[in-house]
Amino acid sequence: MVYKPIFLGISLGINTKKPSLDLSISINDGLFTLGEKTYSFVIVNSTAEGMRSPMISPQVAPFPEKNDALEMDEIRGLYINIEKQISLPAYFSTVIDKSARSAPKYGLEEEESLDCEVCSADTNEPISEQSIPIRCARFASRSPPIIRAGEDVIECKMPEDYLPIDIFKGEVASGLINILIITLDKWLGEYTRENAVKIVGLGVASNILNLSELGDKLKSILWNKYDILPCFFPSDCASLKSQSEFLARKCASLFPNNNLTVLTIGEHNKVVVDSGYIWYCAVEHYRPSIGEKSYEFMVDLLKESRAMADEKQKITFFSSTAQGGGVALMRHSLVRYLQIINVDVAWHVCTPSTSVFNITKMKVHNVLQNAFDNSIQTKGELEANLQEGEESVWLSEDDKAKIDGWIESNYTQHWKERIQVSTVVVLDDHQVSRLAKVIKKDAPNVLIIYRSHIQIRTDLIGKSTDPNNLTAMDNLWQFLWESLTHADYFVSHPFEETVPKDVPAHKVIFQPAGTNQLDGLNKPLGLLAKTYYQRLFNDICTRNGENTVDFNRKYIVQVARFDPSKGINDLLDAYYGLFCMHKKAFPEKEFDIGLVFCGHGSVDDPEAVVIFHALSKRLESERFQEIRHLITKISLPPVDQLLNVILRNAYVACQLSTAEGFEVKVTESLMKQVPVVVYNVGGLPLQVRDGVNGYIIEKGNIAEVSSRLFQLLTDEKHYKHIKDGINPKDFIGITTPFQALFWLKMSNRSITPKSQRYYKDFAEKYLK
């Protein structure tokens, strides 16, 4: 089945003449408006209990004859009939108060839920002065900055005889919200049922965010149930039909390339997260996953975010690239979260340079991780061992000058202005580590935090026997440390072995990598979404000439970049060992277990193509002749749900990195109830309970990897035992809300001293 991308726009208002709740839905195929449907629900006064629940059963009118079937799928929504009389208590006596339920002014505010049955929704006492029972409290968050900026420019004026829904309060607001959500749910359910369309996004006027509970419920049902991205645009509120068509077109404009959102880089290389207009989850949605102490957590988050705003503090993150790799994934999530609680946060990236990225990957990243076992060789030894056509990994003076020139250019042309008004700067990877000394010189009062996210082989630092004849590692580390010595904090993954001895103990803070439990990478996928992304995954494989994945059979997956330190060859050999064991144990049974290598590419990793081609060449060897048709290798576009679906449907996930920072894909696999097999390297064993929810194996012990895979894949009782040992709650402490609170507390200079285990200590406060 080929899915046709569809974009929707909805507009709504209260018609005061009838009176009625009017809802307009417009359908757009990415270029053209296919049609619009307006629903009008008459409102009557009633105090009868139970009449507010809208029991809606949508009916599909007969389609016109002589129309193409696929086209009818696209416009099917125009033939959905929904009829409902709305009964609301005291409709005409409702006080219309524009200030009653306005969007949060301070970013994150505690308020009373509209559905609260304990508190009085009609009290005139300000929310901030009421005592709200914890079970009735919810936390409202602001819309992202670009949406807010647009709202400040455009004053919403509804058409004559119409009122915007966000001016109502109390029971009326609650009733209207519930009716709208149920109506939209029924319409979307009918439109997508057995339909060859994929609704990519839905545009809606941002003024509804003034009624934050409506905004939150709308985001939840669109994103979590239908895998639709909610897009909020300031609108001048023309007629409902014109407005819904405008919103559908605006929504479609955010997805010009194969239904992918545009990576938006703004002025001064600032990353505009979610294109500025997409907002699919609110802070309130995270509370259930946090657990029993979610209220206390949110109050602490509110306090820290208010303090940041009151003191006009600004946090700025700097990294090499905005897409591809773990740093980019985490920053999109973190910045999104911080913005909606009104923290002044920005994320800037480097202007790409192929020549610099070649240096930072081959001569910095690989040397720090000792990817090719040559980091303790001297310059002369490296040159003596070079093969024809190879380049030495020695970081030359010209290389150093090129890196510094690149950093200086980015600083003067793009970053200087933001840095000088920032109170906290986070250097998020080694590519920008040389920025520390520049900042300290020009803005000495800025708090500088360096985050080391890879496994530095600190055991290889200081191995030079002659200061005039350094090893590649010492030559590199001296270059990096010359700048990093100016950092106020050195944030590292939570294991001491990766912190160089040069770093003073009082500067070290341990922090695990993070993941977002509600984004496309981790959210539960419904059957329709799962089917769509499985087909999309295989379509990408087919278009690239790669084997597709049989999602109805067992398969092993490793999600990672195509990188020499990711242990790709080790897993391939272990898989071959599994094949041999299976053939010996079950000679009459076909071996049909798949193996999938996949991940996102990154512009700062030019080596990925080389590694991918090396894997392709190795698979052509006679050894893999019988099983190569079961092996899939693919570099995926930046669609989080593709990684979600390939992990969620896997039987076992592996991470056999030979050098690693934390690699949170291990945790993300466990969050999806998928057992894992990892090497005892870096931060990998910190995420796994050996023999309980997976296995930790010594690096290079390929035979044991094969044995554990065989056991998991052929012994159903044992597999169930390991699977039952997975407790997703074990990993909540590293998710985005905790990461956000960590960075707020790190930015709070009044919290001193901060111990090395600061992250763990404050996270446990809410989890025990």
Characterization of this structure:
This protein is an alpha/beta fold and 768 residues long. The chain folds into 3 domains: 4-103 and 143-259, no CATH class; 307-514, 3-Layer(aba) Sandwich (Rossmann fold), CATH 3.40.50.2000; 527-734, Glycogen Phosphorylase B (Rossmann fold). Helices cover 36% and strands 17% of the residues. It has 22 helices and 25 strands. Strands 1, 2, 3, 6, 9, 10 and 11 form a 7-stranded mixed beta sheet that branches. A hairpin with a 4-residue loop joins β2 and β3. α9 packs across α13, α11 packs across α12 (435-442) and α19 (702-714) crosses α20 (716-724). The chain is globular. It starts with a strand and ends with a helix. 48% of the residues are buried. Mean pLDDT is 90; it is low at 48-54, 91-101 and 120-130.
Could you give a quick summary of the protein structure above?
The protein has 768 residues and is an alpha/beta fold.
Average per-residue pLDDT, rounded, comes to: 90
In whole angstroms, the N-to-C terminal distance is: 48 Å
Question: What would you call the shape?
Answer: globular
Unreliable sequence segments: 48-54, 91-101, 120-130
Class inferred from helices and paired strands:
alpha/beta
Strand content: 15-25%
Got a strand count?
A: 25
User: How many whole angstroms does the radius of gyration measure?
Assistant: 28 Å
Q: What number of domains?
A: 3
Q: What does the main sheet amount to? A: 7 strands, mixed
- Number of H- or I-type helical stretches: 22
Helix fraction, binned, reads: 25-40%
